[in-house]
């Protein structure tokens, strides 16, 4: 089961979406006549963000499998593999509810720096962030609330969706 989940995640999140992101970003830069920023510093920054995002994804994925005792293949409330049985609240999950999504957005930021794409930075990444936040709020969070009930509602009240540095007030 974990093999299917990993292969799917790599194919979609590691290949298809990044290649689409590159193609759209380059096309927008060309159409909008945006100059690319290209320096060794932007490349190093990009690699740093990709590694940082990857570390966050791997850590969060490990916790989902080990502590949550399930997998991440659930899209639009359709369970493609057995879903988590336990709510994970440790590690990066103690700060935000969706660290894998944040890790992925950080990796896309790294890709933008490597490409030197202004449209990627100012158009595609914000749109991707908004779409991810909407998807997570509308589909994932409802599924988690249905699965974990009050435990998830309390967790949700204590943690942020995607941005850990914003302090959430707990009553």
Provide a count of the helices. Answer: 5
Share of β-strand residues: under 5%
The number of strands is 2
Largest sheet: spatial strand order: 1-2
Mean pLDDT: 89
How many angstroms does the end-to-end distance come to?
40 Å
Tell me about the largest β-sheet: 2 strands, antiparallel
Task: Please give the share of residues in helix.
Answer: 55-70%
**Rg computed from alpha carbons, rounded to a whole number of angstroms:** 17 Å
Low-confidence stretches: none
| Overall form | elongated
Q: SSE string, helix = H, strand = E? A: HHEEHHH
Structural classification = mainly alpha
What does this structure look like?
- With 171 residues, the protein is mainly alpha-helical.
- 67% of the residues lie in helices and 2% in strands.
Walk me through the topology:
Blueprint lengths: L1 H30 L8 H27 L7 E2 L2 E2 L19 H17 L2 H31 L1 H9 L13
Antiparallel strand pairs: 1-2
Give a brief description.
The chain has 171 residues and is mainly α.
Keywords:
single chain, 171 residues, mainly alpha, 5 helices, 2 strands
